[in-house]
Amino acid sequence: MLQYPYLRLFALSLLGWLFGLAPGQGLRPCATVESVLGPAWDTAASYPSLNIVLVWGERDSGRPLTDHNWPQFATEWEVLLRKVPNATVSRAYYFPSAQQWADADIVVFYMRTHTFRQEAPVDLPTPPAAGSYTWGAPQFAALDDYLQGGGGVVIMHSATYPDVSYENEWVKRAGLSWKQGTTTFREGNLILRKAAAAAAHPIMIGMPDTMHFLDETYYPMMKTPDSLSAPVTVLASSNETFNSQTSAQAALWTFSPPGKPGKVYGFIMGHLGASFNDPLFRGILMRGMAWVGNTEFSRFRPAVYSGASFSGQCSTPVGVRAGTPWKPAVRAKEADGAATFEWKGKPRQSDGRVRKGGSRAVPTSPARVPGTFDPQ
After folding, report:
1. Domains identified in the chain and CATH numbers
2. Which of 21, 137, 215, 363 is the most exposed place for a label (fewest CB within 10 A)?
3. 3-state secondary structure 161-220
4. Which has the higher per-residue pLDDT, 329 or 263?
5. Residues contacting 226, CB < 8 A, separation 6+
6. Are 326 and 310 in contact (CB under 8 A)?
7. Residue 98 pLDDT > 60
8. Vertex 97 angle, CA 96 and 100, to 5°
9. Tens digits of per-residue pLDDT, 210-244?
């Protein structure tokens, strides 16, 4: 009888291998990624112009260079996304300029929005004054005008975490966001489960029902006020435990503010630099970019594959990186994505940690996978 549990484990591992998503698998096989996302190049296609703005902020200096490195993302993905045919890519420090708002089809927010430090940005000669880059009425008005005109927005990881002074305004545009004093985080193995109702959505179509990542999630997220009628569409979730209750928490979602034709895509991952070399991570992120920008995902495929970490051969030549493998070490207690720690209502600082003098349970998570973005 002992052989049956092992036989079941072998069968599940084999199924995971077929989809390139098994925990501990290492690099995802390129052939498997192509079966989900399609090949890298579509030489017969031609595309209209596309303008992408990457909004970034000063580096989170309290963390390793492998975490929350927003300047590196903006610098290197500006190069990477220029592999998208007929695309113009630019960067914006905290806010797009008036001209960038006017020209943009897609605005990607990936920066710290809840605290600010005075650091010299890599391409600005003078450090900004501390606290000078915070959202207020003029910035929200510009975002509203952009969404009213049908513009597309992607809000990734830390950009879903607004300052407490404007979190109620941010969530009206984002659909979901961090709530000061309630939301927490978990870094480790994530199992994203595709929502059944989202199976035919352009971002999720053809994606496996479960997808394994090593990154970080925030939960529970604040929802739009009850007075807003526009619903949030959850595309995928992970099972997380909060105050002894385990439930599905949104990891990917879409939203359009009431009365505005513009589209918003919420993407909870983006904590670790190594994640940005994972082709499935890139594919889900760039499918969202294509969706909010009202364009075809096929034009993003060269950027998905260029410099990504694979095993095996791709059907078309791409710049495959031989760098850091994607290799989460799933533990038995984390096999379902459930958190191994929880908050108990202690007063928190702005980053979610309990204030000095309070107690907190320490999360257990696998060793971090070092890496950089490294697009070629």
Report:
1. 15-124+131-334 (3.40.50.880)
2. 137
3. CECCCCHHHHHHHHCEECCCCCCEEEEEEEEEEECHHHCCCCCCCCCCCEEEEEEEEEEC
4. 263
5. none
6. no
7. yes
8. 75
9. 999 988 999 999 988 765 767 899 999 999 988 88
